[in-house]
Write a structure and sequence with these properties.
- The complex is a heterodimer.
- By secondary structure, chain A is α+β, with helices and mostly antiparallel strands.
- Chain A has one domain: Pnp Oxidase, Chain A (Roll), CATH 2.30.110.
- Chain A has three helices and seven strands.
- Chain A has helices at 12-15, 57-64, 95-110; strands at residues 21-26, 32-37, 40-44, 47-52, 67-74, 79-91, 121-134.
- The model of chain A is unreliable at 138-142 (pLDDT under 50).
- By secondary structure, chain B is of the alpha+beta class.
- Chain B has a single domain (4-146), classed as Electron Transport, Fmn-binding Protein, Chain A (Pnp Oxidase, Chain A, Roll).
- Chain B is 28% helix and 38% strand.
- Chain B contains four helices and seven strands, in the order αβββαββααββ.
- Chain B has helices at residues 4-12, 57-64, 94-115, 119-124; strands at 16-22, 28-38, 44-50, 66-72, 79-90, 129-142, 152-154.
- Chain B has a six-stranded antiparallel β-barrel.
- Classes of the chains: A alpha+beta, B alpha+beta.
Amino acid sequence: MTDTVKLPDDIKPVMQNGIPATVVTCSADGIPNTTIISQVYYVDPVHVALSFQFFNKTIRNVRENPHACVALNDLEGATEWILDVQYDHSETEGTIFDEMDMQIEAIASATGMSGIFKLRAADIYRVKSFRKISSPPASSRE
Amino acid sequence: MIPGKILAFLEDEGTIGVSGTRDANLIPDIHYVSGWSVEPDQRTIRCSIAEGHTTHLLSSLEDNRRFSLTVEKIGSHETYQFKGEFVRDTQPSDADLAAHKRVRDRFAKVVSRLFGFPEDLCRAYIPRPGLVICFTVREIFLQTPGPGAGRRLYPPEEK
């Protein structure tokens, strides 16, 4: 666990590598929910935005219990970034929304999901902490 | 009981798995998954948790037993989430290691093809199992992107 909540610059390319991320939330009655998401957007050193595309359990959960855990995949760096975050607010217009909408369209087009991926809101989360988990080098494996 | 179509998906098609728990304060956590298999009762999934991802895992499971596993077929986006209760933990068996290798090889093949990374790099991204979590599946949800995402498949939703 780090001592600061400020995200370092080297997380930015990981958020832009096109590899899906994961978010875990928890309902008020204590059921965890694990979802694969197409995009995590860097807002500033202490905030990220997740795409709200469907009316789903993740959305309901963070409005009941704002805590969430996000994992980003850095294949080239053989590292997973785990972010502990807290839901802050949603935006349905403005710069962040427009940029995320454009990126979602590009991801949808590249993955054959045009017409299915549609950004409803950019959900803004405050980063509480983060940690990096490095995979052992390939040479140490079978 | 896990439906046959989804059993086949788990056995032959899923390429990436991620699991979730929460602690006594309802704070969620993510645990990367190295592989999975279904026990003969067709209700219990053996979920191999990757080395490095077991921190706080057992303390959370001993507190509340809640566990969720999401498995996706990269490429088609076919995805299911399994929610259930922790039964026991165990060290990886030879069968768990074999399941890990099958998942790792499927992952490497498809990610290499879709994202252009060398297969060795992709294979190395799925770590060896550090611990196996056995959990009883209580609910299965469709998570393939689209309007049906979030629909409960098992037990079937009432109409």
